[in-house]
Amino acid sequence: MKKSGFLIVFCSILLFCVSGCGNSASTETGFVRQPESMNVAPDNQGIDLVCEVKAKSGTVTYQWYESGDGTTNTGSAVDGAVESVFKTPVFTEKGVRYYYCVATVIPENETQNNSVEEPLVFVSNVASVAYTALPTLYINTPGAVEIVSKEEWVENAEISLVGAKDESWNFDKVSTSIRGRGNSTWSKTRPKKPYALKLDKKQKIMGMASHKRWILAANYLDNSFMRNEVGLYLSRVFEFDWTVHGKFVDLVLNGEYRGLYWLGEAIKVNENRVDIDDGCEEMSDGDDKDYLIEMDYYYDEIVQFRSPVRDLPYMIKNDDYMVDENGEITSGGKARLERLQAKVTALEKLLYPDWKEGMDTNDCSAPDESYAEIIDIDSWAKFWFVNEIMDNRDSGHPRSDYFTFDSKRNLFKAGPVWDFDKSLFRVTEYCWLKDTIYYNALFKSPAFVSRVKELWDEYSGRIDVEPFVESLRSTLDVAAEYDLTLWGHNDYTNMLLEKDFGNFNGYVDYLKERIQTKISIVDREIAGHDTGSQTDD
After folding, report:
1. Helix axes 227-237, 504-527, angle to 10 degrees
2. Would you give the DSSP letter of residue 323?
3. Where are the beta strands (DSSP E) in 407-494?
4. Which of 135, 218, 396, 452 could disulfide-pair with 194, CB 3.0 to 4.6 Å?
């Protein structure tokens, strides 16, 4: 590349081009296409930037420039970049580069002595190109139709993954359906949208087990982009039966850069995910299956009920063999649902043995210890560890809290854990989640409290959050800042934090400090013996 003083020369010409309406060529001459303002370059690949000017007459020449400050005030001409299409170099260092194109329309009669027409000069917008070292996920919908619903699938879309370090992960034009997903994250006030994917055929993605259903989490409420990953790290530390897996990608949707996303597994019943007995077509009305349950106050599934004592919203996520093709609950579905409701009623009567209508469950006596025959204590203790450490506000509603029910063993099991993008904002200086869901009863149980202490002693020494967070910081630094350039720092996040930390590193530093603080609070609470009381810091 070489420096050029061309901009100084053509500034006066450009002013003429903008204001020279009397020139007959100017009325029908101008840009047909300019480069996209934000772009990502996959690993080991350059990308095409396009600038095209239409001229009524004359010859169009092009010269591409690299800008050091993201404006057209300065620039270095790129050697040999003299076509309307410019392929960027292959980048080896992460960062953001800036390019623009100068197109010159040279009149046909310029070489004649009596020529009075001046060249017309057009300067394109500045195109930024980020190399983040993350894979790029390209999604194209038919006719570039927008995704506007989280109920209706856009079918016949295609996804491609490019630039993965492990080349075996890359794939091209896989058929899929796509729709919106989420509740609060899909709202009109949240412009960066999350999506659900349903592949036409099962497929492994980035080393994750084969399945049709995947999600693209936007992490719009989390300016560190890593709260969900930290929560899932804790899930692995505490050895849950299954932990959701995912990888970060840059998303390009219908040719437009849409930001840093997390491409991961949807929570589904499957031998590679939530591995429970989902039933079969031959089930009679008297046969039972296992259930994947979500407690969520949005209460928007077909098969659902509220528990009689705690009024908790139970939603069945695996409603196979319970709902017909019209979305109506079948006779077998109703019978199975009634039997599950009876199990929940029996559980709550054991947890709150002296409860009466209108009574606050916090005022109930300690549970009947035979509840332990119905609840998997270890999983419920670990579920509390993860959500309490993450100071997960959603669990207090409850929202996005997943459990399973094993019909053969008559056993409620907590997990998998999920949805931490609104966690660890303003850390509560005591262990407040032990008063949510069923924990206000469990923490009155000597058996549960004793097991909490044993499991904490076994697992807490394995928690080493700092290197995990620092590794993520190094991985996401450029991608995160580029995303924030597009979407900005979320005002809702800053309101919760009561501060704008300014950049990606500031938000990561805050997250790291807060999680270490909450681990200390949990440790102190458990070590203090009385896990049934709140202790202000």
Report:
1. 40
2. B
3. 411-414
4. 218
